[in-house]
Amino acid sequence: MAKEGLISVPAARPVAEIVDRLEAGLAAKGVTVFARIDHAAGAAAMDLPLRPTTLLIFGSPQAGTPLMQAEPTIGLDLPLKILAWEDATGNAWLTYDDPAWLARRHGIDPAEYLSVAAMTALLDALVHEANAP
């Protein structure tokens, strides 16, 4: 079932490996990784089962600041995030917010800000590169 504002793409590798590739891609592009949160490890520490699920938080002030200047509430949704997760059948997925949807959510016209298009292009490229052979 599709969820409004979310983009989900099948991952070509297991969660840990795909997140490593995403992180390497961000480093190569000079984008700051703020955090890598292993939700499954947190759950395991509490003796709770959870399939592999890792959140990568990253961004650039050059892209996000103009949007926050226009509407500070978008800071709730920035920096950008990609969730790598495994479904019940063992398939890995990459899910992230559509930057244009985020802008509209906060009353920003995405067409007015080049950074929205740049964020979209970055996310598309990262996912493509991480899934490449």
Automatic annotation (TrEMBL):
Give the DUF302 domain ranges. 37-99
Task: Report the superkingdom from the record.
Answer: Bacteria
Where are the coiled-coil regions? none
Q: Which InterPro entries match?
A: DUF302 (IPR005180), TT1751-like_sf (IPR035923)
List, alphabetically, the PANTHER family matched: INNER MEMBRANE OR EXPORTED, SLR5037 PROTEIN
Q: What is this protein called?
A: DUF302 domain-containing protein
